[in-house]
Every structure is written in structure tokens, then in C-alpha cells.
Amino acid sequence: MPRFYVLDPASNMQKMHRDAKAAAAEGCDFVVFPEQFITGYYENVEPKRIREEFSTVSSAYPEILFSMGTISEDGVNRLCVYLGGREVAHYDKIHLFLPNGEGEIWGIGDRYIGFSHGEWRIGLATCNDVRFPEQIRELKLKHDINMVIYPALWPWQRFNVWRSLLQARAIENGCFVAGCCVAGVDNGSQLFDGAGNHVFNPLGDEIHPQGRVYDLNPDDLKLVTVDTRGQFCQIDKVELTET
């Protein structure tokens, strides 16, 4: 997960190529870029142009799985996953951060998404989605995911909230959780400091990178000694008693 500082779109695309090359040199299997790392919130670049660039990067390193965020033609905040130059999955952000005006600039997704890759079953989510545990719980219960990624533009002022929520999602689902946040944005339309990258194992222990590389050991999934899929109880009636 690169520490990505968002500048103008042309510079960002160049940096994407450099970071992908560096990741390949370090033997990475999965590279996660932050939310909207090419455009930020407001830069206007044709979605097809950005996806073509994603495909070019992915084609250059066909053994690496890439996660990259963009805006789609219909105006949703889309998280794309590429392998060998082609898109293998995408997720449209559902839980927009309304206090920041996201509901005024993006549409809302309509489904939760996960995908399988080798021994990994990976849930896709974006930024403010981390506040909504039911999203990943559904994927855990129905598809037994063992990793979740959260690309984000999360502000440094709420660093502790970001880290705590990521850790909670790991503990309650017994899976790996990776939060990839921009280092910052300074592109003429935004000025923003990000809350940092964090990766947690299924017990909620933070995994620290070697350089920029995080080593995730699938055997750590065996450390979870309870049935995290559990029993799903749907309660229709909720009561509030006044005193």
C-alpha cells in the first residue's frame, strides 16, 4: 500500500506507474492504492482514460493484483480490481460521508462485493464504509471472506477513529483488514492530510510494514478459535422503554 500524495492527475498517473514498478521489484502479490488517488474529489478526468491507464499498469505486471479507485461514467465512487490488464471486480461505494457533501457529487452503490483470488476471499469497501459493520458481516456470513480492504481519504484529525474501526472490523470478523489512506492531497481544489495506512491480523494485532510492504500470513487465520460466522439473528422488533 503506497503512501500516496495526491497532486495533479498527470503527476498522479506517473506516480502510479513508479509505485507499481517498485512494488513488483519487492515481490508484492497485491497492491492497494488509496481512494480517488488520481483525481481527488473534484478533478475532472474522463473515466475511460483513467481505466485505460489502470489496465496499462496491470498489464505490465500481470502476476500482481491491483486495487485502484476512480469515478465511473454514471458518477459513482468506484473501487476497481485489476489482474493481467483486465478488471476482475468492482465495488461502488455505498456509505457516502454526507457531512462532507459526498452525496451531492456521487451516486450510491447498490450491492456489497467480494471476490476470490487463490486462497484469499477479499471483501471490497471504501473509506466511510468502515463505520458500518453490517457490510463486511454480510460478506463474512455469506462468502466467508478472510480479508477486507478499505481504500480511503480519511482526515488526520480523526486518525484514532480510523485506526480503531479498522481494528474492530478485523477482530469481530476474524479476518485481515487493510486500510489504505492517502498521505495527503494538494491539487489546487483540495488541501488535505490523510490518516495513514494500517493493517490488522485476525486477532486485531497491527501488522507493521517492512519498508512499504506488508506480509500477510494466511496461517494467522487459524489463530481465531471461535466461529466468527456465528448465528445470524434477524430481529424485527426493537423496543425503547422510557423511565
Task: List the defining traits of the structure above.
alpha/beta, Nitrilase/N-carbamoyl-D-aminoacid amidohydrolase, six-stranded mixed β-sheet, four-stranded mixed β-sheet
Notes on the structure:
The chain is an alpha/beta fold and 243 residues long. The protein has a single domain (5-223), classed as 4-Layer Sandwich (Nitrilase/N-carbamoyl-D-aminoacid amidohydrolase). It has helices at residues 9-25, 47-60, 102-105, 133-143, 159-173; strands at residues 5-6, 30-32, 65-71, 77-83, 86-92, 113-117, 120-124, 147-152, 176-181, 184-186, 191-193, 198-200, 206-207. The strands form three sheets. Strands 6-7-8-9-12-13 form a six-stranded mixed β-sheet, covered by helices on one side. It has a four-stranded mixed β-sheet with strand order 2-3-4-5, covered by helices on one side. It has a three-stranded mixed β-sheet with strand order 1-10-11. β7 (120-124), α4 and β8 (147-152) form a beta-alpha-beta unit. α1 (9-25) runs parallel beside α2. The longest helix is centred in the first third of the chain and has 17 residues, at 9-25. The radius of gyration is 18 Å and the shape is globular.
